[in-house]
């Protein structure tokens, strides 16, 4: 790298970059590096959990003309991007709720268009890449473990830094900076360390020196001669005038070849952010440039249709265009591509005119100019008047609190107004904004097959293409989608089209054609004929418009710190008009396919949900234990089941189900001609053929997968007599889509069933994930030793398992699950605490938000709960905990629960809600003929013998005790909606006994007690 000699150390001329004494010529491009100085700083600010600290840092950046600021110990949760004043913050923190560690880089807003990549690797290491004329400026911000942490944590941090350095190029300007919690010491002068360090080197300093040697990096703040107060970066809490304890533990490192680009490095003790560390600033000769990005066409924003005037203009323009098209169109036109092209043009033209996404306005936060001025006064007073400095600190805290309260009051007024107008969409958006959960998420991290981080977009696209191509590869014969069957299937009616459009959801991302369901709903009745004609043209010919066969995959992480392609979920963006067309097809074939669905499948079916699957599993296990019947359970997990469906077998199944041939032909052409591209950042990959798997985001996919999996289970277990026998009927499986549970009375039956299911699944292209498939024995026997095998591999035996979002265990106890639900609800409450505890928001509104955002988390799966006294006490305690925090009552205030409820203007609610939901659910399943399997589980006879002594509390026993009824009386009440409603009404009034429950006489039509 060509460099001009720059004075450093004792003022002499530095040797040229490269070997000592070497000479390297400069070219014109690299001279750009020397044309502009940029100030880069790093600072451990001792937490930015209080956002006023972030504003303070931004203020100091502006005052000292620092363009890039690395920050250590932010204590922010998660990773992402945020804005403070005229600065942009890229941050990387913990993914849990613990406010510890965390790093960030704050840049001036003028540099945001130079940012190429942001990699939040861990709470201690992150990378920010900026485009420069010399190539790329890599800023690696770190926060090393303190001396009390084990060496393993230090090595883990250096390993993360090495992983990042692997993906940077040698010609890049790479800077590693931050609080390294190491002492490099004074007096050494070599290629990696200058003579102007401080103190004596320690073991962590030796490790830092090794790192510099291994990576040819120089510690820049040891190169320049300054007074010691401009060299030390940290002051010990034990420091005092009589015992000076200061050290140099924050450093800025740069590649050795670029050491001459650094013209000065020093600390600023007078910088005005409260911290025991000093701001360290380097002046670097580097010239940044605006990143060239592909020009994106203006995006259509359907949300603008909420404006009545804009909606009226779009409505009028679309229907005028469709009227012209209708008047000029040829009735004999049957080419779907041409018809769709004409309709699309007529709809898109007004959308592009009226629905262009407006320029985003800056959000105004609570910080005021007055507080910023006080911060500057505090900084100056720190140097001259210590007493005034302390007074200003108190005043700033007071003013910050006051400004936050005023800002909060304004936000609460906005939410009150939205709630009054029943604008739930914007209310939810405002709540997310308020709680900080709408921060811009960081770009995804992707690694190759060797675990190396990949940051080059072209390489990322290549990795995704290979992954998707392999995932959806299958052998298909050309003649598999050539149909010679007689055509059956009635023409599509306008009424069907209208119903499908009305059922479409608003606010969903549009596909490649940019037309969303929100816009299609503006087509008036008389012009629906055009859409109907298009659908019939497709239905008759079996040919779909080419654009409908194309979709875009968007990748979303399935878990925090997702790195490999398998850790991501691919969401498909497809044409909304296609979705509406397929909704028409779905309604035509649903009933035929539903008739052949087993009762044990609860997923993606009308009238069924996870609560039915949870109820079936929990009550079945409970009833077996009541009669000392052991249950052997296998929780099957498939490898990407939805992506492994074989198209040829799926089409054959549909033919065998007597689906109209035109419907089959449509699905055949849709699946055999589909293509997809993958969106990586702002770019897209090449088109790829999707040769297997049901379509992501398609309304038909759940139904098609259900019938596909039904064929697998029918083939595997149709003649199987193993399972839990109830009234002579074996129940050997419970399913929710691909979540399959096998049940047996002994290990031999379970092993046989698992073998059959594996064999049938593999025949249809599905394979078991043996690492995630688990095995559980639920029994009263002590330490059963049986083992389950899958293809010669042991299936892990567990005592607890996460099933459909709940924790089930081998003891069939509900207390552990209720504890988990309480903690999740508590976490949700704490995220919304600024709103729920705000006295600027009316109590009624806060209670409604509590019921909307917190209680549903607490009560998930409540219909299957069996409660004892301890569970009820825990639930009631959580409810009172929430009310006390809403009212801001401290535990030291000695306020009774009775007084808390009086102030809330309500009675204890959670337990009554549990009772109500369980009773309501009993009525729901007892009145529904489709719930035969649930009737069987709750009422059928299971062979076995009860143990001597007191019986365990059961699901029905809860209801019997709460309502003082026998089981038969409960079943009779459950099938009578009026009697059930009266029981619930009396429950709400605090009365659930038999003596006072209002019942209803069918014969007289009168109520009696």
TrEMBL record:
Membrane spanning residue stretches: none
Protein's name according to its UniProt entry: Craniofacial development protein 2
Entry-linked PROSITE patterns: RT_POL
Molecular function terms from GO: catalytic activity
Domain of life: Eukaryota
GO biological process: DNA biosynthetic process
Residue ranges occupied by any Reverse transcriptase domain in the UniProt entry: 537-808
């Amino acid at each position: 790298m060509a460099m001009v000699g720059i004075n450093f150390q004792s003022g002499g001329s530095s040797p040229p970059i490269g070997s000592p004494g070497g000479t390297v010529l400069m070219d014109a491009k690299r001279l750009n590096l020397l044309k502009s100085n940029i100030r880069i700083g790093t600072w451990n600010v001792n937490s930015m959990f209080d956002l006023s600290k972030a504003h303070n840092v931004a203020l100091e950046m502006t005052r000292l003309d620092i363009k890039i600021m690395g920050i250590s110990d932010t204590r922010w949760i998660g990773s992402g991007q945020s804005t403070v004043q005229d600065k942009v913050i890229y941050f990387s923190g913990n993914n849990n709720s613990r406010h510890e560690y965390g790093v960030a880089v704050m840049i001036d807003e003028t540099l945001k268009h130079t940012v190429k990549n942001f990699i939040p690797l861990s709470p201690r290491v992150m990378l920010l890449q900026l485009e420069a004329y010399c190539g790329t400026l890599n800023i690696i911000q770190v926060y090393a473990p303190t001396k009390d942490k084990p060496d393993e944590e230090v090595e883990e941090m250096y390993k993360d830094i090495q992983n990042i350095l692997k993906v940077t190029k040698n010609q890049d300007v790479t800077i590693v900076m931050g609080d390294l919690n190491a002492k490099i010491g004074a007096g050494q002068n070599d290629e990696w360390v200058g003579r102007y360090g401080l103190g004596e080197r320690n073991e962590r300093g030796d490790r830092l020196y090794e790192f510099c040697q291994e990576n040819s990096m120089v510690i820049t703040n040891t190169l320049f001669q300054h007074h010691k107060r401009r060299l030390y970066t940290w002051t010990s809490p034990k420091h005092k005038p009589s015992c000076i304890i200061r050290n140099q533990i924050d450093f800025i490192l740069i590649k050795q070849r670029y050491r001459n680009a650094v013209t000065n490095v020093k600390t600023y003790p007078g910088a005005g952010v409260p911290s025991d560390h000093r701001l360290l600033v380097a002046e670097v000769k580097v010239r940044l440039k605006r990143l060239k990005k592909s020009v994106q066409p203006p995006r259509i924003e359907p949300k603008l249709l909420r404006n009545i005037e804009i909606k009226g203009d779009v409505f009028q323009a679309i229907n005028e265009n469709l009227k012209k098209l209708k008047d000029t169109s040829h009735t004999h036109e049957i080419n779907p591509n041409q018809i769709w092209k004409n309709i699309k043009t007529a709809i898109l033209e007004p959308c592009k005119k009226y629905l262009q996404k407006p320029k985003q306005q800056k959000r105004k936060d609570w910080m005021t100019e007055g507080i910023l001025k006080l911060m500057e006064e505090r900084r100056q007073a720190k140097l001259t008047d210590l007493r005034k400095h302390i007074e200003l600190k108190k005043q700033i805290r007071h003013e910050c609190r006051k400004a936050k309260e005023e800002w909060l009051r304004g936000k609460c007024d906005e939410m009150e107004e939205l709630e009054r107008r029943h604008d739930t969409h914007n209310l939810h958006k405002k709540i997310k904004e308020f709680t900080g959960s709408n921060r811009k998420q960081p770009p995804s991290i992707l690694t190759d097959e060797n675990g190396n981080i990949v940051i080059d977009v072209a390489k990322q696209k290549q990795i995704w293409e290979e992954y998707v191509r392999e995932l959806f590869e299958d052998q298909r014969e050309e003649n598999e989608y050539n149909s010679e069957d007689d055509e059956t299937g009635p023409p599509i009616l306008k009424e069907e089209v209208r119903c499908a459009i009305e059922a479409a959801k608003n606010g969903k991302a549009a596909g490649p054609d940019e037309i969303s369901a929100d816009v299609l709903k503006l087509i008036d009745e008389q012009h629906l004929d055009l859409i109907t004609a298009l659908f019939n043209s497709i239905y008759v010919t079996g040919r779909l418009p080419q654009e409908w066969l194309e979709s875009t995959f968007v990748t979303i992480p399935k878990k925090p710190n997702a790195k490999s392609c398998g850790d991501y979920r691919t969401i498909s963006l497809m044409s909304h008009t296609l979705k509406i067309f397929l909704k028409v097809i779905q309604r035509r074939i649903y009933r035929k396919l539903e008739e052949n669905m087993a009762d044990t499948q609860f997923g993606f079916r009308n009238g069924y949900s996870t609560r039915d699957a949870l109820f079936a599993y929990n009550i079945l296990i409970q009833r077996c234990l009541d009669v000392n019947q052991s249950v052997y359970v296998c929780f099957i997990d498939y490898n990407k089941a939805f992506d492994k469906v074989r198209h040829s077998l799926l089409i054959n199944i549909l033919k065998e189900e007597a689906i109209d041939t035109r419907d089959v032909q449509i699905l055949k052409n849709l699946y055999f001609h589909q293509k997809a591209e993958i969106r990586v950042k702002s770019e897209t990959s090449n088109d790829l053929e999707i040769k297997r798997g049901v379509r992501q985001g398609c309304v038909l996919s759940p139904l098609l997968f259900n019938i596909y999996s039904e064929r697998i289970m029918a083939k595997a277990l149709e003649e199987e007599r193993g399972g839990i026998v109830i009234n002579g009927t074996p129940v050997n499986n419970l399913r929710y889509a691909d979540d399959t549970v096998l049940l047996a009375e002994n290990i031999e039956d379970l092993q046989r069933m698992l073998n059959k299911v594996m064999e049938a699944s593999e025949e249809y292209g599905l394979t078991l994930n043996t690492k995630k498939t688990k095995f559980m024995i639920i029994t009263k026997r002590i330490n059963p030793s049986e083992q389950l095998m899958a293809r010669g591999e042991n299936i892990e035996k567990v005592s607890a398992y996460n099933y459909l979002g709940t924790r089930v265990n081998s003891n069939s106890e509900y207390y552990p699950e209720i504890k988990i639900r309480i903690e999740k609800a508590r976490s949700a409450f704490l995220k919304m605490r600024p709103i729920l505890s705000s006295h600027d928001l009316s109590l009624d509104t806060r209670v409604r938000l509590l019921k909307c955002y917190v209680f549903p988390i607490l009560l998930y799966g409540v219909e299957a709960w069996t409660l004892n006294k301890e569970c009820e006490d825990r639930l009631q305690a959580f409810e009172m905990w929430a009310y006390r925090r809403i009212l801001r009552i401290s535990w030291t205030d000695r306020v009774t629960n009775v007084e808390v409820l009086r102030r809330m203007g309500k009675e204890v609610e959670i337990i009554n809600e549990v009772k109500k939901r369980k009773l309501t659910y009993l009525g729901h399943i007892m009145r529904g003929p489709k719930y035969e399997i649930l009737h069987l589980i709750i009422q059928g006879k299971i062979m076995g013998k009860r143990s001597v002594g007191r019986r365990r509390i059961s699901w029905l026993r809860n209801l019997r005790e709460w309502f003082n009824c026998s089981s038969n009386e409960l079943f009779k009440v459950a099938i009578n909606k009026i009697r059930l409603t009266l029981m619930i009404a009396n429950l709400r009034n605090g009365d659930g006994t038999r003596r006072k429950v209002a019942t209803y006489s069918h014969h007289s039509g009168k109520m009696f007690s």
